[in-house]
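Let us practice reading a record.
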Amino acid sequence: MKGLKDLLLLGNPLLYSVSDPILETELPQVQHWVNDLHAVMEAIRAKYHFGRAIAAPQLGTMKRLIYMNIDKPVVFINPEFTFLSDEKFEVWDDCMCFPNLLVKVKRHKELIVRYKDENWQSREWEMKDDLAELLQHEYDHLNGILCTMRAIDDKSFKWRI
């Protein structure tokens, strides 16, 4: 089982890599990956007091997998955005890969995501506001994009207090 020591930190070249789609034949491995993601997210919550979702590439698993656990666990396999609103909003974004740094970014206010769940069933979810922002952040990880790369300007960084 992976732990906090396995979390890739800002500057690790893997964080800037595009992840591969998960094949249906890899479905038996997904639960192991999800267990690792859950364990690391819980460790981040205990140490830094934040963490609602995590993407597989943050642990060096270069697969298109996102694990979210706010009030219940949700597994996103091969997520794709089918709609992004024109309306955006600004938010101070944080990331487990640099837990003490906040970055001001603009995110779409609404989106629709299509994905497979852990049983390989097709799902679709319309998200707004903070959930939409969260999923955009995690989705970026699948494409090798960090919120530092989306900073509004060169003054859009601050330390978490």
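A brief commentary: The CA atoms of residues 4 and 95 lie 14 Å apart.
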